From TrEMBL:
Organism: Hymenobacter glacieicola
Keywords: DNA damage, DNA repair, SOS mutagenesis, SOS response
Family indicated by similarity: Belongs to the DNA polymerase type-Y family.
Residue ranges of every copy of the UmuC domain listed in the record: 2-195
Phylogenetic classification of the source organism: Bacteria, Pseudomonadati, Bacteroidota, Cytophagia, Cytophagales
Pfam family, one: IMS_C
CDD domains associated with the record: PolY_Pol_V_umuC (cd01700)
Protein name: DNA polymerase V subunit UmuC
The keyword DNA repair belongs to this UniProt entry's keyword annotation: yes
Keyword Transcription regulation (UniProt): no
Length: 439
């Protein structure tokens, strides 16, 4: 059996943990630079607010209904996610962190110890809420696809607050009757792994629900739904596990590429300002590399102008370099990033976005050496330096120690910083912003 634990309206729920006055009040969270809505509480959804609604277009509606508007606070959301995932790792033998607010649990062979799985799911749900303040829903089934579907049905039922198939936020598809009932409640377009293109094809062929898809002949699925992938999807819906857990160090899947990009709060035209952004992105990406024990062979740097500006045509330019030896060294990657930025730079241009991407990842210690490279080239003092850099930033906070090109004058914000005018404090990651309780 597998379980899928999914946090409800995660970003909005994180905001409510430390602001209890938001309970029962509509809450929305905005994207980078306060551009559009990326998270909504149930109350905000009931007002008809949609994901991706531009903030400037719905500002008046938000004011009329006294909606709490929050700028994205990724430091808070990331830390709250780590707290949830840590607990889930303690209550199951195997954990796969699927996203910032979702995780699969492998419950194979645990039924004799856990007892009734519905009760187990209810305990997990209650404990996560008590420990972190984050509400979750739990779906359990013989396959990962069915667990995802069960979670969807449980969440819909808990929102409706009706005595439906599951009104408790927990659903276990441990019998064929429960599985068929749940399959009939989910549209084929909402099945995990069915995108818009396949949904259109399925509807044209007469498949409307997940139950219809589960009854689909395997040869038809193989021909029309991506070959073996389509067959696996149908078999998973029939209750036969085809997808295994994908655990890794730290509980998350090892990334095959790493990207760090941001839109700027305002257009930037000076090379050193854009380089400051690129160096910051390189530093964050390299830290993620080291966290999962990888090294990158390919570095790509890109810059973009404003797509909605008054100076057409907008453009994006990029340059990449293939290194002779894959590396996780921030200093080396930052030096290469400066060279790549110089190749795409156009003086006098107003840039609105930049980013870096790391590809060709290899395991540290197992990098393919160049013809004239020595093993010492990928080890030694620089590895110790990077370890010290990460340790200092863990102890004193992100950005406590950084490469020189990413630094700014004391008391002066970076020219490219995002607009986050309504950002809540970093309650759990900054000593200066800890929650204060007055007695």
């Amino acid at each position: 059996m597998f379980a899928l634990v999914d946090c409800n309206n995660f970003y909005a729920s994180c905001e409510r943990v430390f602001r209890p006055e938001l309970e029962g009040r509509p809450v929305v969270v905005l994207s980078n630079n306060d551009g559009c809505i990326i998270a909504r509480s149930n109350e905000a959804k009931a007002l008809g607010l949609k994901m991706g609604d531009p903030y400037f277009q719905v500002r008046e509606l938000l004011r009329q209904h006294d909606v709490a508007v929050c700028s994205s606070n990724y430091e808070l959301y990331g830390d709250m996610s780590r707290r949830v995932m840590w607990y889930l790792g303690q209550v199951a033998p195997e954990l796969e962190v699927y996203s910032i607010d979702e995780a699969f649990l492998n419950l194979s062979g645990m039924t004799r110890y856990l007892g009734d799985l519905t009760e187990y799911g209810a305990r997990v749900r209650a404990d996560v809420l008590q420990r972190t303040g984050i509400p979750v829903c739990v779906g359990m089934a013989p396959t990962k696809t069915l667990a995802k579907l069960a979670n969807r049905v449980a969440k819909a039922a808990s929102k409706a607050a009706t005595p439906a198939l599951s009104g408790s936020g927990v659903l276990c598809l441990d019998t064929d009757d429960k599985r068929q009932d749940a399959l009939a409640r989910v549209g084929v377009e909402d099945v995990w792994g069915v995108g818009h293109q396949y949904a259109t094809k399925l509807y044209a062929a007469g498949y409307r629900t997940a139950a219809d898809l589960a009854a689909c002949p395997l040869p038809w699925a193989r021909k029309n739904l991506g070959g073996v992938v389509g067959m696996r999807l149908v078999r998973e819906l029939q209750g036969y596990p085809c997808l295994s857990m994908e655990p890794s160090e730290g509980g998350g899947a090892v990334r095959k590429s790493i990207a760090c990009t941001r839109s700027f709060g305002k257009p930037v035209t000076a090379f050193e300002d854009v380089m400051g952004a690129v160096a910051t992105f390189v530093s964050r990406a390299a830290e993620k590399l080291r966290r999962q024990g990888s090294a990158a062979r390919v570095l790509t740097v890109f810059v973009s102008t404003n797509r909605f500006g008054n100076e057409p045509p907008p453009f994006t330019r990029s340059a990449l370099v293939t290194l002779s030896v894959a590396t996780d060294d921030t200093l080396e990657l930052a030096a290469q990033a400066r060279l790549m930025l110089g190749k795409v730079w156009r003086p006098g241009t107003l840039y609105k976005k930049a980013g870096v991407m790391l590809d060709g990842l290899e395991r540290v210690g197992e990098q393919q050496l160049g013809l004239f490279e020595q093993p010492a080239a990928v080890s030694g003092k620089r590895m110790e330096l990077m370890g010290t850099l990460d340790a200092l930033n863990r102890q004193y906070g992100k950005g406590a120690v950084m490469v020189g090109s990413a630094s700014v004058r004391k008391g002066v914000g970076a020219a490219w910083e995002m607009n986050r005018e309504q950002k809540s404090p970093a309650y759990t990651t900054s000593w200066g912003e800890l929650w204060r309780v007055w007695v």
